[in-house]
Structure formats: C-alpha cells, structure tokens
Amino acid sequence: MNRKELNPDASPQAAYGARMRGLREARGWTQDELADRMGYSSVHISAVETGRKPPTLRFSRSADRSLGLEGSADAFEREYRQVRQGGLLEGFPEYVKYEARAVELRLYNIGIIPGLLQTPEYARVLADSAVRRGAITPEQADDRVAFLAQRQVALKRPRPPMLFVAMDESCIRRTVGGPAVMDAQLAHLAVFAESPNTLLQVVPYDIGERRTFDLPVNLLTLPDRSVVCYAESQAQGNLDRESASVEPMLTAYHQLQAESLSQAASVAMIEQVRKGKP
C-alpha cells in the first residue's frame, strides 16, 4: 500500500492533515476505522490527511468527538479556524499553540486593546472594520471573532497562567465602536485587573523616549521556563524561540513595566477616561 509522505510545514492545511494522521495512527486506527467513527468515508479521511481536501467545521467537530479532543487546546476545531484565518499574520497560528500552554504571558500593545482582553463587541467592531477595508472577507471576520473567543477560554483553565499586560495610553483613549462599546470595554479592563493572576499597567504618554517597544510584543513563559517572543509589524508576525534574541526582549519588557503606572494608578486612569475626563 502506497503511503504518501506528509510535510506539515507546507501549509496550515498540511499541518492539520499530518496531525490527524499522527493521532489516528497513535490509536492504532485505520482510515476506515476513523471514518466509521466520524461518519465520513475513508476516501474523505485520506484526502484531508494528505491535504487534498480542506477540512470543514463539521468535519473538525466530528474529529474532536471521535478523538476525545472536544473543548481542549488541541481540538481540531481550533486548528480548523486557524486554517480558515487567511487574515492572520505569518507566525501567529504557531504562536497561539504556545499561548494555550504558557504559564506566564507578558503582552504589550499600542493603539488597540490586546486581543485577550477584548470584549466580543470590541472585537467585532475591529473585524467588521477590516471587512469594510477589504482586508478580510465577512467569513474570515466571523472566524476571527470566534477564534479570539476560543483563545480567551483556553486561558481560563484550572490553573490559569499569570497574565501581565502593559498597554500604551493610546489603547484606552482611542475610541473603538462608539461610546457604549468603549465604555463596556474599559469596564472590562477594570474587572480584569481584579483577578489574582493578572497585572494591568498603562504606559503613559509622558514616558516619551523611555518607551522600550515601538511595536506590539508578546512574551510567553512555557512550563519548562523557556521563553518565546512574538512581535508584529503591519505586514507580518515573527515568532522567536532563540534565547539570545528573546532575553533582551524580556529585559526591555521589565524596563517598560518600571516606567509604567502602577495597577492602581492605571485603573484610576481608565475610570477617568470612562468619565470623559482628560
């Protein structure tokens, strides 16, 4: 029997198929056996595994039920949404896999609230705006909002990670979606700051040149205490796992925290913005 070699690095769709084959074979199942469990033909299973047919949402949910992955960070439904995310920057789907198992997250954002702290309404406004600009399709907008919700849920595990967030002052002062959406978003930030596993800091305008980053940066500490860095420009994202380049970014983040407002002062500024005070 001919067996096609798979290259999971060829594309997100290829990675999906290769992982499905790996999980199936780890259980000792043939394609026919998985097909019976999922309610599909073995030909369909083969086509997805080899990347000749794209997965669907229904197919992914059936795979999760059959493989016992429903609701987990490794669910095929999550990976399906990554495959569908044509609007995601390079490197981001891989980053999300690390995000789901990180024990500490350090985030810095400019201009908009970090995704993990966005309300559904705020996230929807941003996605719909991208549709109007022609950057993504309406279907991709729906997937983007749903994918963000899944990322947020994945962090609410029994032992949640520490989440450190430093936001440029522009994040809370730039109105997104109108007063009602923005007021609810700012209120959500105040609630977020009350959690025992979070630290929220506003990076004020007046630190001037002492701001250590000019672009959004995410730093993840993994269970083995290694650190990965994900940074974005307008056109692409870059995931870095090399300690020689990641460690200076971690140092810069700590320097930024030292220049930022305390959490209490940050929440006070957020409340002032909610009340329309300068």
UniProtKB/TrEMBL annotation:
<protein>
    <submittedName>
        <fullName>Helix-turn-helix domain-containing protein</fullName>
    </submittedName>
</protein>
<feature type="domain" description="HTH cro/C1-type">
    <location>
        <begin position="20"/>
        <end position="57"/>
    </location>
</feature>
<dbReference type="InterPro" id="IPR010982">
    <property type="entry name" value="Lambda_DNA-bd_dom_sf"/>
</dbReference>
<dbReference type="InterPro" id="IPR001387">
    <property type="entry name" value="Cro/C1-type_HTH"/>
</dbReference>
<dbReference type="Pfam" id="PF13560">
    <property type="entry name" value="HTH_31"/>
</dbReference>
<dbReference type="InterPro" id="IPR043917">
    <property type="entry name" value="DUF5753"/>
</dbReference>
<dbReference type="Pfam" id="PF19054">
    <property type="entry name" value="DUF5753"/>
</dbReference>
<dbReference type="GO" id="GO:0003677">
    <property type="term" value="F:DNA binding"/>
</dbReference>
